[in-house]
Each structure stands twice: as C-alpha cells, then as structure tokens.
Write a structure and sequence with these properties.
This protein has about 130 residues and is an alpha+beta fold. It has one domain. Helix content is about 40%, strand content about 30%. It contains one helix and four strands; from the N terminus they run αββββ. The protein has a four-stranded antiparallel sheet with strand order 1-2-3-4, with helices on one face. The radius of gyration is 23 Å and the shape is rod-shaped. The N and C termini lie far apart (about 55 Å).
Length: about 130
Amino acid sequence: MGQQQLHLLVLGIILVGLAVIIGLGNFQNIGVQSNRDAVILDLNHIASFAQAYYKKAEPNAGGGNNFIGYNIPPQLNANDNGTYNVISTTPKKITIEGIGVEKDSNPGCSQGSNITYHIIVEPNQTILQKIH
C-alpha cells in the first residue's frame, strides 16, 4: 500500500508541475496578444489624426490634401504600449510604424523581436501590415 501511495504522490507532483508550466505560457501569450491589440488601436488612432491633417486646409494647420509635413502629436509618440514613428511620407500616402513593448516568440519572427506593425494611411483608407 505504501508503494502505491508514493507513485500517486509522484504522479500528482508531475501533473501540478505541468499545469504550472502551461499556465505561465498562456499568461505570456495573453500579454503579447494584449500588446498587439493596443498597438493596433494606437496606430488606428494616429492614422485618423493623419487623415484629418490631410483633409484640413493649410491655413487651418492642415496639409491641404497633402500628408507631407504631418508629425505624430508628441503625446502619441510613445506610451505604455509602444513607440510610434513616421517612416515614409508622400503627398498621398504616409506610413507609420508601431513597435510594441512585448517580445514576439512566434515562429517566423526572430527570437526576441518586439511586436511591430506598419499602417499605411491614404486619404480614404488605411492598410495594416504585421511585421513581427
């Protein structure tokens, strides 16, 4: 009877250990997904400012149907979710990069790469691209 109880105890310890390991992995995945969602939301918010700038007349501090001259508002350059930068600008298109604070460990991404998205903003549409 003592031998059977010892086997059950060892089995119980192994099962609890596996449950803890799986739980920690799921917790990290939730953090990464949450950061992805937050970066996408921030990029969409910045894109709406860029489109408003494009549509505003130059005398009203706008671009007058031109993205050139648009700068991300200082309060939106960086926050708890990540950092955001304009990476290219043409009169009819602007590309903004968002780099999250969480590291992506999914296959296809170099180990330890931060979550990264680009949003291409045009006068009447936006296109989101996942980089990492």
